[in-house]
Amino acid sequence: MTTSIQIGTMKITALDDGESHMPPMLYPGLDFDAHPELLESDGTYHIPGACYLIQGEGVTVLVDAGSGPDSIPFPAELAAAAGLAPAPEFISVGGRLPGRLAALGVPPEDVSTVFLTHLHGDHVGWVAPGGKPFFPNAEVVYGAADWDALIASAPAEDPARTTMEAAEAAGVLRAIEAPTVEIAPGVTAHHTPGHTPGHYAVRVASGGQEAYLLGDAVHHPLQLNDTGISFLFDADAQHALRTREELLAQFADSGAAIGISHFPGLAFQRVSAQDGRKWTEV
Fold it and tell me: Where are the beta strands (DSSP E) in 118-207?
């Protein structure tokens, strides 16, 4: 699926690299019994894995790099803990990003910057699959605080670690740690920790309009009004909640378009504060 919006002279396109099949236990505080429509027939909640292509004059930035070319089998221990019998064959099915870019007429060579909102495996997969940078002319930018927390501490065979270490060896990485960093003209990164310590959101501004790409700072649509819902892989659930509430309050009735990596359909949203906070599709 692809979804595009225009922000001034900048075009932002959401591209799905694949989808993940999430057991309900990964969303503490979410009552799936009250929302049975969220679950597929396999007993899991299906979410897309988005990457965002930002195009403007002299600007071709890819925000996040999907889960990569390989599908990941559903871990037996997770299936047992979640009570899934049988479990889906795969917890993550990836590999679509190259085709999505090709359909837009964007070869990997045209991408000048790959910005990673954070270093979880479903956001870094196409950085250097097989040990070779997939975007040969791109600088790969990420939040410095995520390296020790998610890469250096991971098992040697972890796919996120191997792809990021391959990029490090190729000399294409740039770590950032300032609260706000310009990535390209009109494109800035804003530190939004909680989901991970080095998590960043991306702001795109042009012609008096703005959009924000939130990565995993918001993980589920119901988090708009239910502060009790978290995500099991939040590094610091309370910090993630504070960050999320600050962002949602900032966006309420602001007119800003919002792209969120794992929202079904990947439609860009706005936050309306009329009669309680609501998502409204752009």
Answer: 139-143, 173-176, 180-184, 187-191, 200-206
Query: How far is the first Cα of the chain from the last one, in angstroms, to the nearest whole number?
Result: 16
Cα–Cα distance measured from residue 132 to residue 169, given in angstroms and rounded to the nearest whole number: 10
From residue 217, alpha-carbon distances to 48, 73, 220 in Å are 15, 26, 10
Domain of residue 95 covers 2-281
Residues 6+ apart with CB under 8 A from 52: 12, 13, 14, 15, 62, 63, 64, 202, 213, 259
**pLDDT at residue 275, as a whole number:** 82
Q: Which helix (H) or strand (E) holds 270?
A: strand 269-272
Under 8 Å between Cβ of 114 and 140: yes
Domain count, the chain: 1
- Placement of tokens 């503490």 in the chain: 28
CA distance 121 to 25: 19
Per-residue model confidence as pLDDT tens digits over 26-79: 999 999 999 999 999 999 999 999 999 999 999 999 999 999 998 999 999 999
Q: What pTM does this model have? A: 0.97
User: Residue 138 belongs to a domain with what CATH number?
Assistant: 3.60.15.10
Tokens, residue 252: 């309420």
10-residue block means of pLDDT along the chain (282 residues)? 90 97 98 97 97 96 96 95 95 96 98 98 97 98 98 96 98 98 98 98 98 98 97 98 97 96 95 92 94
**Closest listed residue to residue 173, CA positions, set 196, 146, 191, 197:** 146
Q: Which of 273, 282, 281 is nearest to 224 (CA)?
A: 273
Pure H helices in the chain: 76-82, 97-103, 121-124, 145-146, 159-170, 237-251
Number of H helices, E strands in the chain: 6, 16
